[in-house]
Amino acid sequence: MVQTNHQEPRSAKESWSHPLPAGTDFYAMLRAGDTLFATGTRRFKERPYFKGYLWTHSAEDGSQKTETALDALPAYEGLVAAAGRIYLTLQDSRLLCLGTK
After folding, report:
1. 83 lies in some domain
2. Domain enclosing residue 28, as ranges
3. Are 78 and 93 a contacting pair, CB within 8 Å?
4. CA distance 83 to 64
5. Is 48 inside a domain boundary?
6. Which of 12, 33, 39, 43 is the most buried if burial means most Cβ atoms within 10 Å?
7. Which residues contact 20 (CB under 8 A, 6 or more apart)?
8. Domains held by the chain: number
């Protein structure tokens, strides 16, 4: 007989929540410092094609800082932070570098 140290799962305590507009789909999210970066789309009923976005939110309270429209859809899981910059891949095969030079 195999014995395991099974423990009941603990519930996570919610620190904050932020409502998202209807039709918002996230493709990637990461935290860098005190900022959450997220990419995704927002589906519109009047247009079948999606538009890409980069959003920033406060990691402290979830409040939205910025919303930037992208000229192409972001790639799934295509968001990386390194050396003070954000690297974002797009579905049109481009890599964007965002941050200070």
Report:
1. yes
2. 24-99
3. no
4. 23
5. yes
6. 39
7. none
8. 1
